Amino acid sequence: MKKPKIVILGAGYGGIMTTKKLEKLLKPGEADVTLINKHDYHYITTQLHKIGAGTAADRQIAMSIPDLIDQDKTHLKKGTVSSIDINCQEIHLEGGDTVEYDYLLVALGFEVETFGIPGIKENAFEIRSFRSSKAIYHQIIKQLTLYNEDQDPSRLTFIVAGGGFTGIEILGELAEGLPKLCKKHNVPYDKVRIVAVEAAASVIPFFPEESIQYTTEVLEKMNVELHMATKILECTPEKVSLENNLEIATRTLIWSCGVKGNSILQNSELPLIKGKIPVDRFLRVENSKNVFSIGDCSLFMKDEKTALPPTAQVALQEADICAKNIVATIRGKDLTAFEYNHKGSVASIGTTSAVGKVGNFRLSGLFGAFMKQVIEARYLYNLGGPALIVNQHFGVNSESVKITAKQ
To answer: Taking the complete model, does pTM exceed 0.90, yes or no?
Structure first.
């Protein structure tokens, strides 16, 4: 009997953890599993701000996929998906390769939403992937180097757009990382401006007032300039235009203002709602028995009006149920309905501060920063056990990840 082919698109949180779960659930020889990813590394999305500010080694954030999976059970195919043919059950890759499947998981992740603001797509730097975050670091080094040549103050002005979790994390990391980079490149740090711009009335507007106040105070102590209730109107290579006729000369705008579904989905026959794939309570694509979707590119409605947010926590919980349901489908067994259990959220603001909420408990300060580390360690444990935790904290090598980054 022909073994069924399971194909997983994307090695982000959802894709890699579904792969790991399938390796445990499937019997030897029960199915062929292929994981398709554009890179041969998996990166920790919630730590990308450290790569942008240069405060972490590449291999602490980007880990080799062959080292994470069981290569006797899973085949890694490096490639970029160009289209998905549902009728023929084929995945088409850039370069012409075609991969057939019997069961498909679409876990392609997100793209950045620019809201149509002029110049953002062309000129802003994104915390979207390891590659795009590394480009932020290269941009910072470039501007520090050029400042020594022309003393143009715009080179030392770094704007972060977006006051959500990603925004405050990169702000905190810049405030801690830039003094060291300035010292290394003989640039006076007192000339540096770190600016936060948020359209809402405050940072982390979805959090309690106490958390907002704490975050604001920490950022102000870090000498971050806060422009709240302010929209960005345009971005050019030399400046950012804001509401109220305000312009800030800068060469570096870091964009963290929203996400949308992967544009690859447009080249498929999958149903889409606002660029995302609607799924049923078993995480199957609507009107499909053999195609599943999880993570940022899927649309799971927790009630009639509200969809689950595109977070790592959602993707990880979906991965566990999705793997079980793929195996159950192959075996003709009953499927398990997915139920999301929100366990709280914590965002770091540099090394020694964080803000968050777990259950009814509000976290902040050093304890919050500790809990952030616990959450990250738990993910590493689930991904590779105690050995991976030890390696990532103490044994990681200094090898740079080979990428072609925007300079």
So the answer is: yes
